[in-house]
Design goal:
23 strands, 14 helices, 483 residues, globular, Dna Ligase, domain 1, 5-stranded mixed beta sheet, disordered N terminus, alpha+beta
Length: 483
Amino acid sequence: MYSHASSDLFRTPGAFDEMSGFGNEARTPYREVRRWLEETPQDLLQTRGAQAEHLFRRTGITFSVYGQAEGAERLIPFDIVPRVLTRSEWTRLERGLVQRVQALNAFLADVYGPREILRAGVVPEDLVLLNPQYQLAVVGHAPTKGVFTHIAGIDLVRTGGDDFYVLEDNARTPSGVSYMLENREMMMRLFPELLGRARVAPVETYPDLLLQTLRSVAPEGREEDPGIVVLTPGHYNSAFFEHSFLADKMGVELVEGVDLFVRDDIVYMRTTEGPRRVDVIYRRVDDAFIDPLAFRPDSTLGVPGLMSAYLAGNVALCNAVGTGVADDKAIYSYMPEIVRFYTGEEPILKNVPTWRCREPDALREVLGRLDQLVVKEVDGSGGYGMLVGPHASRGQIEAFRHKLLATPEKFIAQPTLALSTCPTLCDGRIEPRHVDLRPFVLTGADGVRVVPGGLTRVALTPGSLVVNSSQGGGTKDTWVSDD
């Protein structure tokens, strides 16, 4: 039923399988799932998969892919076979996630304030101060309650039993939490008995925890009943469904820039009953477009004067302006040092080994091994602008060689990891596919919270390591079950 023969591991023998490890027996957290797969006829699994797709389509859970000629919205494929973690595995991951996000927030507070880490030479000044995402407009300004990254999505990959690595940090506007919640809802509809037998930790508290986080960072004097909104670029945005979904789940208004205005450094929302004050904005609009008076003057997505209100301390922006500097993949390569600098502890979660192509020795190493490495743009996202050497043609490799020689500072390189595989329903058969995991970490004035699980993304193409939905990837429900 479940054969590894079809899995291309890119020269890396024996990828760890989430269900069976490096052997054939089901690992403890997967025993119920293995039994379920063995007892359930393949045609019934396929029928349930089709039902899930129909329900998702009817609900309107779609996303848009920029640059597609057809401009059509797509359904992110959902796989009905869950990805399962034990409670002890999750406890360790949670500790590492909290440590890492606390270090990220300390780093952001520092580089926009005293810059101690730069003066200490731990991180090169130019990587921060010349970074396109470093916003001079907020230098010397601490956001309300001192939190920069309120919502973080930390991408993890697994290569062995206890070997988890952080692939990247998403500190600006991480997306995908709506799929985490809807995937669980779908599994509860289709397989309630299986969920009950596996004793899975709940994730449906996320909207309440998000609302609690947003309330906690309201400006001084506005904590009692703050006005909270979700600011979206509009329905053409690829993640608009998520914006609408979260606003609805939290019971707050979904607004566009035209729905808000600023008067005397206070933000208001236009309503049929007159202006209503806004104290906290969960914004899904990038820095460059958030205020045409402070950033891009041609932006129609933002709110004129919003930055004045923000700098006056009259509104909280979640996430804060300027967090993109922590998204940079060159900064990522310094995260072990950043964690040590701010926490005095060894990192619980490891980085993937990374070559900084801006460094001559590293560049020489990378150029000599392009067919073996993954090369990424330091400010890239969504699986775009990258080279997966073992899967690339000679022409693609040579094109990247020219890019590296021209602008080496724009790239980092990493080894091609044998990402763990997970049983996945593919054309009526259960086959292994590579996966990653994006847990969501909430940081407010009242502490750090992590919902057990996260979004598992799966590369549906056989052998592919690219799990991004924009590149044809799908999603799975992620279970944290008792050991």
